[in-house]
Amino acid sequence: MLTLAPKSSYPTLQHPHRHVWDFWYYFAPETGIFHLFYLNAERSLVAEDQHHFSSQVGYATTTDFLTIDWISDKVLGADPHGWDDTSIWSGDIVKVKGGFLMFYTSRNQATDDGMTQNIGVAFTHHIQSFDRWFRIPSIRIQPQAPYERNHVPEDLTIHAWRDPFLFRHEEQIYMLLSAKDATQPLGKKGAIALLKAKNNSFEEWEYLPPIYHPGFYAEMEVPQLYRLSFREASPTGATDYALVYSSWAKYDFAPNTEQSGGLQGITSSSLFDFAAGNPQVFLPETSQLYACRVIPELDGEIVGFDITTGGIRRSGVKTGLQHVDRDFSSYSIEV
């Protein structure tokens, strides 16, 4: 599945004064512009690993991930008066009728334990109006069974209910999330949650069993779903899917990955059954990239953040993976 692009030294796109890590994007085909949303914090916080607790969302644009226009380092930050009164963590961006929705992760310090994660939603009419994102206070997607509902202090990693990824299948809206499976043992609870939108409304969600919960990882971060390229499709003509996610090597206990961590994935001919088979390492942690995204617009090239310096970098590794259905332009939401 993987091919290496001609060897070259891809630049790490560093912000002039902020530490940058996870990102997500919307690609505008009419302009060829990738609209990037990225986590960022003061560089001085990185040495003591405190940047995660002060992160906010910034906005940038690029056409090729070789140069970048850093437009604003703050389009969405913690709301001291809302449930999302701590830092903002990774999200997703989708185009809907009349604007764009950003799904994001945050936590509550005032009345919660400060570690349990929830999903919020913000809206803008124009994606380039980076200072005009409005939260939708009626939407707060909280973890429920069969997933861990709260932080488990004895676990290897903190609570996981983050990194939303939306897609459509047979006219139904679904969401993937990095989660914890309450039925798995400590240290191996990492799972990818599956939610289904009730009445395709974005506001109410049905909690389905995990789409993947192998009992191999302490956490499975930044999940994404793709289609295999045509040349690798099933000989029966069925669509094959690839489910990808990230894990740090120290939390990777899969029997066949040699604790390599990084971007991993598993394929299936059934969209909702990834139980069979062993995970594949797409890009190990030794690549020095993490929280990678597959970019179908670049032949499925893997792009991630540079774990040594911060910033965004192309890998040169092309997967050939293609988008699943992420067209939400016919759906609307009241704001």
Explain this structure.
- This protein is mainly β.
- Helices cover 0% and strands 45% of the residues.
- It is built from no helices and 21 strands.
- The protein has a 5-stranded antiparallel beta sheet with strand order 17-16-15-14-21, with no helix packed on it.
- Strand 19 (301-306) and strand 20 form a beta hairpin.
- The termini are far apart.
Highlighted features:
335 residues, mainly beta, 5-stranded antiparallel sheet, 4-stranded antiparallel sheet, globular
Give the rounded overall mean pLDDT.
93
Order of helices and strands: EEEEEEEEEEEEEEEEEEEEE
User: Could you give a short account of the major beta sheet?
Assistant: 5 strands, antiparallel
| Helix fraction by DSSP (H/I, runs of at least 4) | under 10%
Physical arrangement of strands within the biggest beta sheet: 17-16-15-14-21
Report the end-to-end length measured between terminal Cα atoms.
42 Å
